[in-house]
């Protein structure tokens, strides 16, 4: 896990491998596998989102309320790793947006996917939105950056 990005942008970077089970009959990574990559990278960078250091559930949980994904190039099964870069373009009272790019880990010249997710923090007992604490907000602020440009329909 690295922290990369241009000045003013702080992106977390998680390097991964395409698994054979991620590839569909068309020979490229299936769209459902991409969601797994985004989740894995996000939880690698923000391990306390709903669980403590031992993996036990906490009193709050972050749940996805929206994903927006733009597929830009086909990622196929290959030995070369890819990277998922994650950053935070918006922090609300109880919601946070995550932005992502999946790119070639070695050159970063090929962007395979660009996406964003909105998550809302809920109280685990009541399922009502719960405001972020100062510490939670600080964890997200460490990765602040500009929202990705996604094309409209």
Mean pLDDT across every amino acid position: 89
By DSSP (H or I, 4+ residues per run), the number of helices equals 2
**What's the alpha carbon Rg, rounded to whole Å?**
16 Å
Q: How large a portion of the residues is in β-strands, by DSSP E?
A: 35-45%
Query: Terminal Cα separation, in Å?
Result: 33 Å
Looking at this protein, list some descriptive labels.
6-stranded antiparallel β-sheet; about 35% strand; single chain; 2 helices; about 150 residues; alpha+beta
Q: What is the topology?
A:
Blueprint: E1 2-4, E2 11-16, H1 31-45, E3 60-71, E4 82-91, E5 95-104, E6 111-123, H2 134-141
Antiparallel strand pairs: 1-2, 2-4, 3-6, 4-5, 5-6
Description:
- The chain is an alpha+beta fold.
- It contains two helices and six strands.
- A six-stranded antiparallel β-sheet has the order 1-2-4-5-6-3.
Short description:
Helices cover about 15% and strands about 35% of the residues. The chain is an alpha+beta fold.
